[in-house]
Amino acid sequence: MAIRIINHQTAVKGHVVLVLLVLLLFQTCRHRVAGLAPTVPATGQTKLMLKESLLIPSMDPEKEAKAMYEKALQQYGIYGKTLKEICKTWVTRGCQCTGTKEEVTLVCRGIGLDAVPADLPSELVKLDLSNNNITNLPNKSFDTLPNLEELILSHNKLDQIYSEAFFGLANLKKIALQNCGLASVPMEALKRVRTVISLQLDNNLIADMENVTFRGLHLLKSLRLEGNLLQRVPTEALIGLRSLEALNLGNNLLTVIKERDFPVLDNLYMLILRRNQLTEITSGALTNLTRLKVLDVDDNSLSSVPVGLENLMMLQEISASGNRIRWISKGDFPKNLVSLELKSNPLVGIKPGALQNMPRLRKLILSDVRGLNELPPLDGCASLEVLRIDRANLSKIPDHICKTSPRLKSL
């Protein structure tokens, strides 16, 4: 007995199951028979043509045909799913499911999950499980998601994250673990996701990072640690992060930043230290941050401008509002500044030359500096566009300010 196929022609856009069946027959039997050849019609649409009668010998042709048919159906089930079919079960559970059938985004935020679902679609590139009741992440919680790039687990009370919880996430770029009640950094688990670019550990209960190192995360660009209980800069954890661009240590319990607290961070351009309890940033404390462009020390207890800022030649934006700074002296700031914010400081004086000859300065904020009676000379600040002096006790504004700063738009 034999299976006989005579002059059958099938287009790629034809019935999917039949196409797969013919392809499977071709793959299985091409080493035994001849005469199968692809043809390209004039229209450019590829067709598969059986040019002559083929005879496929078989000991049990009915069984073989059935097996091939079932395999074709199975492959159709894997590769032929539409986005609607992938999303159907998740939408009924209260999730939002978007994207394409190859790249699916699944948002299951606040639907009462107490564990990571075991049947997540393998096509996921983004998964949001935030605001649920998940308490632990067992080993291989996401090992069926090889294409996942973004994982959001924030606002879950995670009591335990096993060492291989993130096993199999070979393409993960962003992981969010903020507001998870973490008392320590889950380093054993995190060191297995070496492709991570962004790591959020903010608003947890992390007080000690002495034995933590992110050294293996060579691609890490953004690290958020604000809103924890850190009393010192986690120097050891930062060593080796040569790709790091943005570091947020705001809203912790830092009081002093000393020399060498920050290791060499070649590419760091943004450092946020706002809302700590800083009384001093010593000379040389920021020396290793040679490419720093943005420094935010708002809402601390600094009584003077940190020493050494003038040596950071790439520094462009400084925000030091809400401190206890009384005097600004010549040489406190680098001349390349673009933005300087000093509002709500008890300023009593800005010495001559302190804010002069800053050709790139575009924004100067001196709001709520109630102890300041006189606006300092701004000669050499031709790019200045925004000057805020509201709620300050200035008795007069220099007559020549519009000449020295011809681009001034807001006063």
TrEMBL record:
SMART domains recorded: LRR_TYP
InterPro entries: Leu-rich_rpt, Leu-rich_rpt_typical-subtyp, LRR_dom_sf
Keywords carried by this UniProt record: Leucine-rich repeat, Repeat, Signal
Organism domain of life: Eukaryota
Database matches in Gene3D superfamilies: Ribonuclease Inhibitor (3.80.10.10)
SUPFAM superfamilies: L domain-like
Pfam families in UniProt: LRR_8
Position of the signal peptide: 1-35
Protein name (record): Leucine rich immune protein (Coil-less)
Source species taxonomy: Eukaryota, Metazoa, Ecdysozoa, Arthropoda, Hexapoda
